[in-house]
Structure formats: C-alpha cells, structure tokens
Amino acid sequence: MNQKPDKTNSNEPSNLDFHDEKILKVLSSDGRISISELARRINLSKTPTQARVKRLEAEGFILGYRAMLNPIRMGLDHVAFVEVTLNDTREAALTKFNNEAAKIGEIEQCHMIAGNFDYLLKVRTQSMRAYRQVLGEKISALPYVANTKTFVAMQSVKEV
C-alpha cells in the first residue's frame, strides 16, 4: 500500500472545501479513477483537481490506495470477534501487546476498548479449526493476555 505520512493526529482543524469533500467521496469508492474522470465528476479542470489530490495526500486526508480483496473467494470465510482482557494495562504492557498483535496476519482489526475488556479483535481464518489454532498458538500467547472470549459471525451484513 502506498502510505503517506500520518497527519491524522494533528490538532489543526480541517480546511476542506466543497471540492475537497467531493474528491474524498469519489476516491473512497473508486481509488483507481483517472484524474481526468475525477475532474469531470467534481466539475473542475484536471490541473487544479490533481493539485488538490496531492495536497489531500500530503495533509494526511488520503492515507493510501489499495485493492479490496474478496476474502470469501480466497477461502477466508470464518470471522470471529475476540474480546481480550489483559492482566496488565500499564503503558508498557499495552505497547508490547499492540506491537505483537499487529504481527498476526489473521487479525484484521485490533481495537483498544473502554469497557469490561481491553481489546476487540476481528480475526479471519479458513475454518473453525484454523481459528482455534490461531487462538491457541498466537492470540493467547500474546503478552499480558489474561483471558479471551470469542464470538463467531454467522453472516456479514456490511463490511467496508
């Protein structure tokens, strides 16, 4: 993925106008659109449209471009959500957990949660058997994991 510098933590207010918002909307649904077609859709000429896209990338509004793969076609139709509770939530423990969880390919998403548990993971595998192996050998072995609780998705209604 073509990554741009992350400026999303900036405390500065966004300076997006009508055309910038239209550019972002179009690119979020079709990242492969040509600049010419994008310019036509937002009703600007090509040069200012291209300059706006470059600025939006430089300012961190556009983080990159990627192909959206179909996990079902790839045989990855087992989705589980895992609540993870840690036995230590000091900053060093959280950092260690974050770094190690990011290395596990089957974890599609990892969110720190404010609630009765510490993290919510979205895990995608080929089967329940494969998930059980990931849980036992990778997730449960992550630093500071005290316990986990799994919820298996029966159907995906909406994914982005």
From TrEMBL:
Alphabetical keyword list: Activator, DNA-binding, Transcription, Transcription regulation
GO BP term, pick one: regulation of DNA-templated transcription
Gene3D superfamilies for this protein: 3.30.70.920, Winged helix-like DNA-binding domain superfamily/Winged helix DNA-binding domain (1.10.10.10)
Listed GO MF terms: sequence-specific DNA binding
Source superkingdom: Bacteria
InterPro entries: ArsR-like_HTH, AsnC-type_HTH_dom, Dimeric_a/b-barrel, Tscrpt_reg_AsnC-like, Tscrpt_reg_AsnC/Lrp_C, Tscrpt_reg_HTH_AsnC-type_CS, WH-like_DNA-bd_sf, WH_DNA-bd_sf
One GO cellular component term noted in the UniProt record for this chain: cytosol
A Pfam family that the UniProt record links to this protein: AsnC_trans_reg
Domain called HTH asnC-type: residue spans: 20-77
Protein name in the entry: Leucine-responsive regulatory protein
Organism of derivation: Reinekea thalattae
